[in-house]
Structures are given as C-alpha cells and as structure tokens.
Specification:
This protein is mostly helical. It folds into 2 domains: 2-94, Orthogonal Bundle (Arc Repressor Mutant, subunit A); 106-136. It contains 6 helices and 3 strands; from the N terminus they run ααβααββαα. A hairpin with a 7-residue loop joins strand 2 and strand 3 (79-83). Helix 1 packs across helix 5 (85-105) and helix 2 crosses helix 5 (85-105). The longest helix is centred in the C-terminal third of the chain and has 21 residues, at 85-105.
C-alpha cells in the first residue's frame, strides 16, 4: 500500500505540477518558514535526509530555479536555503491539488469509523517510531 500510494502521489505531482515528491517536500518545508528561508541542517532534519542527499537534491532544484542557497549571515559556516518566486508559485499551485489527490485516494473512500481506526493506528506507529528513533 505504501509503495502504491507513494508512486501514485509522485506521478500526480510530476504530471500536474512538474515536481517530484522530494521537490514538493523541500518546497513545503521552506515555504512554511518566516521569510521562506531555512538552514540546511534544519531542512535535512525535517526531511530525515543525509547531508549528501540534501546537497545533491538542492543542487538540482537550484538549477531549475526553485531554490537558492546562500551563506548564513548569523554563522558564515552555515548555509541557508531560500525558496525562489518560481518555487513559491509551484508549491502554491501544487498544494491544493496534492491535498485533493490524497483525499480522493484515502479520505473520501473511508467511513468515519474507518478514518478513526486509521488515525489511531497511524498514531501508534508514529509513537513507536519516536521511541525507536528518539533523535529524529
């Protein structure tokens, strides 16, 4: 189920918005911050990505004009990732469609009791993961 849902969501994002799921996640996190800027290490933590994966992906996104990378004014050793106007346009267009896609696949096809069960199971899994990986 997880793989099928992930593949569906990725196909929808790519065909409708030109974004991969990874692009969407990066842009969503950055767009939710004040000023649309986030330290690289914070973004890596939110995404649960290794530094090298984040760096490579941000390089591809920067080439496409979705994000920019700059040195932190507070700490010259640190890097800040900023969403560009193009990145903001794409995430603003993609977000409502992404929510609609999730609703059409999951939410709209479950009854209220089924949604309550899914919510309870999901919360138990999240709690267990937090216990197993407390630093994440």
């Amino acid at each position: 189920m997880q793989e099928g849902l992930g593949d569906f969501i990725d196909r929808q994002l790519r065909s409708q918005c030109g974004l991969s799921t990874a692009d969407y996640r990066v842009l969503a996190h950055i767009s939710e911050t004040p000023g649309g800027r986030l330290r690289s290490f914070q973004l890596a933590h939110l995404l649960r990505w290794e530094k090298s994966r984040l760096s490579q992906h941000l390089g591809r996104m920067q080439t496409r004009g979705l994000v920019s990378r700059e040195r932190s004014v507070d700490d010259r050793r640190g890097a800040v990732v900023a969403i560009t106007s193009r990145g903001r346009e794409l995430i603003q267009a993609a977000a409502p469609q992404h929510v609609a896609d999730i609703r059409s696949v999951i939410i709209d096809h479950l009854s209220a009791p089924e949604l309550a069960i899914l919510t309870a199971i999901s919360e138990k899994v999240r709690e267990r993961l937090a216990m197993l990986e407390p630093d994440i």
